[in-house]
Amino acid sequence: MAVGRLARALALCAAGLATACAQAPPRAPEPATTPDWHAMDVPALQAAMEQGRLDSEALVRHLLARIAALDDAGPRLDAVIETNPDALAIARALDRERAAGRVRGPLHGIPVLLKDNIDTDDAMATSAGSLALASHHPGRDATLVARLRDAGAVILGKTNLSEWANFRSSHSSSGWSARGGQTRNPYVLDRNPCGSSSGSAVAVAAGFAPLAVGTETDGSIVCPSSANGVVGVKPTLGAVSRHGIIPIAASQDTAGPIARSVADAALLLQAMAGADPNDPATAWIPTGFADALPVPGPMPLAGVRIGVWRSQFGRHPGVQQALEPVLQRIREAGAVLVEVDLPNQGAYSDDELTVLLHEFHDGLDRYLRETGAPVGSLDELIDWNRANAATELAWFGQDIFERAAATPALTDPDYRAARERARRLAGPEGIAAVLREHGLAALLAPTGGPAWTTDLVNGDHFAFGSSSAAAVAGYPHVTVPVGQVHGLPVGLSLIGTAWGDAQLLALADAIMATGPGFQPARFQPALGADTHVR
Fold first, then answer.
1. Rounded to an integer, what distance in angstroms lies between the CA atom of residue 241 and that of residue 125?
2. Is 173 a catalytic residue?
């Protein structure tokens, strides 16, 4: 699909945009050997554009060609579900602004990919990976998209995801959608990318864009970021408006950045963060929150007290072996590591599911009505899937949909009690309690296990994860790549308390700096196979 989209995008200039092309500033000269623009971070790309060695149009062309070569052909990652036919025109307009002396900020001219559950008012659909919404054009930008456009970002396309953000079936394969197919892990191709922000994490790891936006309800940013060796940030609930995002649960949903460095992720989060009257949760953002997010450089670790969530380190022997040297380097940098247990771990699981089922039914019905979607309710969606079972239900069913459809309204006292209890046990009496008791800056744990072999028949073989407490509490959670197990990336998580995102990002940056940092994907067909694509 993206080969055709690329051809159409490249034809825009010669077709309806000839005038705009004529007005474009002189193009940066192409060097004899094109640099690996796809491997550069945001500051390096900005420096190249400021020095005239690169412009946004050339960068967009480079990335579209890479998507065509590696996502649609070659390893066939199926990470990008649709490219933006307006991307080149947007890039040219931003290049003209730069030539006129106007640079909007650090994201000016920088391409960004969006998960395909985020509304855009353009030629791209917003489908959540479902064929039922393949023609859905909501006629609006999500608030975060409007903020990114204002910041000068180029919306490059939409990424594949676990269909309906992995809230359709209890036996699903992460990274599969009926519209986008099965996303593949770029490190070892027969391995799973985790989800539900599968395409966003894979796209960043594979060099399709320096930045991508994912969404998380519980683990959907941090798990794929860890499995694909990149940085993922689940911010404090309410830091980023959810208006214009296909919902699961208002109590836990958030968008967040995915990047190859903490500094880049912080810049993306800064551009997206801010109050929005369409999302009441954003009313709690502290003054100066966004301004504090950029990471100036690795903070000193000397004397910083960090809680080691030791029970999580023993969940997988390979992960424990990979992370022990990381802990030693953190100690050598002067941090004080304190072994702790997390109070109430798992005690809120049943309540969490109760909340998600209730809020999904209510929130999805409202979204479908407001945006004039081709299906108008969860009940209609269930019926549509049954009528199109050969494609939509080919590999797994919709038992979660059916359970959610059977839930009572949000006035149900059982739902209200579950929501209050889950948040309290995970947050004030969980994460916040252990941090306060031991005087800790953050809680540290492995994000999850190495990527499992993709299995469309049996579904995910998920080993473990450390996302639930922060997800239920609404607290920030950052994962950074710190090592590999048999060539499969593993991430280290840092978890804090509400609105401590800036401190957590600075700490994550310092910890990532103690190791090798981002390691490029090798596109290995399977473990033990030597063939790879550079």
1. 20
2. no
